[in-house]
Predict the 3D structure of the following.
Amino acid sequence: MQSDIKRLSLILLFAPFALWIFLLIALPHIGMVILSLREKVAPRVYEFGFGNYIDFIQEPIYWNTLLRTGSMSILVTFLALLIGFPIAYYIAKIAGNRSKGALFLLCLIPLWVSDLIRAFGWILLLRETGVASSFLLWTGAINEPIEFLYNDVTVVVGLVYTVILFMIVPLVSTLDGMDDAMVEAGYNLGGSGFTVLRRIIIPYAMPGIVSGCIVVFMLTAGSYLTPILLGGKNSSWFTEQIYDQFITRFNWESGAAFGFLLLAFTSLVVWLGLKLTGQTLANTVAKS
Amino acid sequence: MAQSRSNKAFLLGYRLYILAFFVFLAAPLVAAGSFAFNDSLFPSLPWQGFTLDWFFNDTEPKLGMFHDRRLLRGLYYSAIIGVMVSALSVFVGTTNAFLFVRGNFPAKNFFYIIMILPLVIPGVILGISILVMASNIANGIEDRFNYEIDFLRPGIVLVVLGQFSFVTTITSLVITARLKKFDYTMEEAALNLGASRIQVLRTVTLPFLRPAMIAAGIVAFLVSFENFNTTLFLVGSESPLTITMFDRMAKVGSTPVLNAVSFFLIVGSGLLALISVVVQRNAPSD
């Protein structure tokens, strides 16, 4: 009797989970893969085949865009870690009790402001008639307005800006749990600041670092607004290709193939990152 | 002596770096928000004086956001979608929390990782895969039974499903973390005092989870409200606010009314985020 109730409640709890994962994650992805393996031979006539993937390999623009998206996303992830780690360490370990809460709140509050508004803000600051250019004209540093938009540096800065809080927040929670005595012990044993950082702090923070990197990398590689708005028409971001196939050309078969390629590529990078750092998905992203 | 001086210099430099970072963090938001108050037809310098027209004026060319029908409609759809996503994802998040904290079943760790996955799948891919599946089902039914199922075509229902598919991971993680802190002896005490299982759930366990459920609901609403990538592929004629704003930015060029909307959204989402943090922080632990 007791075990029957237990089993029934387990089934009732499992049902929403299973429906969610099966109907909205598993089934759509299987459908996407099947669609990507269909070739259009004539209007409304399809054949099974790898044509969409062969097209991808034969057209350098496509795979160049994917490689470019991947390498720029890795760069953005690295920069976000480099810039974000000292901020997280300051908030978790150096700031006094009161300013610590305030600083962390300052990071949490803008976390959910839309990418669109962030990019809009950068446009107003950086475009030819924007604040930065006007200011430089006014100081006399330049004689003609400068266009800061539509180049790769701006896209990278904008992407780092959009994702960096997703790096800092998990790092703060991880570093917060570290005992100060560990750092002091490192210094007492004669370690320099750099040694303590490398041998004690970074190994301790590794789950947080990896978790932040995974989320940031995925957000960057899958981002659409920031590269389009800050990079202009020629930003060559892979999500733009997917959008183009789906919406503009109405070529869903090819778009599905591109979607699968993006997913496979980003998963491969994340898998390699996990292997290299010896972490697992369960003890990183799941904890944050 | 020299050591402490160099330490002081280092700390000063460190503080300046922190300050520079927060200036960097605020700059675009301040720029996007503050031009809403500039009495000009373009969101750019020079400053022409303070105005609230971009919020409240009711005539062209300076139509304020609270009189702009399309923006208001976008806001309305975003709010509806956000509430639906939030309610659904908190419900499933709560059942997931009980499933993974209390349940015992084979391959639990594997399923836990599956639960995390939607968070790291790019939003664009969630959008297209759900679009493809819904269209396939709708087309199949139309071909066979000659019956059109409207809600499987791009529109509000698909947008809600698309956002729900990854927001649920966030709500599950937040509520799971709270349920893990729960002290079992409280339930046992209530059971010993003669309460039924349902009563215990309603009067002991759910009240304990409430702060996490509220915080998760707010975060779900915010994520839904600002989402663009997944929504873009699933949207029908009822465009939520981010899509309306993007169209206007791309096609018409921007007037400060978009800054007014930005200001409204920055302040609104900031306040909601603040509430979600305070609710969780003030929650009695144990």
